[in-house]
Amino acid sequence: MPSPFEGESTRFDEAAAEQMLRFVEDFGHMYRERNKALEDITRAHNEALLQLCMAAEARDDDTSVHIVRIGFLAEALALLLGSTPGFASLLRRAAPMHDIGKIGTPDHVLKKAGPLTKEEREVIQLHPAIGAQIIGKSRVPVFLLAAEVSLTHHERYDGTGYPSRLAGQDIPLSGRITAIVDFYDALTMDRVYRPAFSPQKALSMLIEQRGTAFDPVIVDTFVQHFEHLDALRRKVTEQRPTFADLIDAP
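The structure corresponding to this sequence follows.
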């Protein structure tokens, strides 16, 4: 004998399943919208910080193209070292913020043509910590990595750098990579106090500091792939990608 509730149970199951399906679809839509909003906010924040970096660099006679080159060179070198594409991509967006702390350095120190006094050196050596303070309070991964880069890219492999006198592998990989590409790229740029060095001269100056200022393994990798990396530097200079290109590159 059929149950008097059999039909109602079937109708209930169908209605519940339909309601659950609508709930899942609505939840999925809300989740995608939330993620898109977070991505848009992070992207806007990233662009704003890069603009601030450009302002800091411009005060030091640099240009936005240097910032962008640092990002692409850091990514390429990270990949050559065997880093994951995810880390390399994150570093591409984080490394350009390495000198954001210069925004807090007085012009009379930052633009001084002659040798710095002891007090002036102490002032300029504050910029890594200032940069880390500016961007390090975020929980967004790219800004956490950027804070790490800012704080550690002036450390030296032999432990004589600043601000914390870290040495060797105690210096995060992000800082060790950024230090090398920043050093090389800066040497190949015209500055108010000197013309640009040739790529070969800049490379020889980098090699001279292998194992003292810079991680010898990373320097060796840079040397091994020098033609590829310098071609990338020239390509970025010629094409002049925007900050949006830097952020959105695959």
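The chain has a mean pLDDT of 84.
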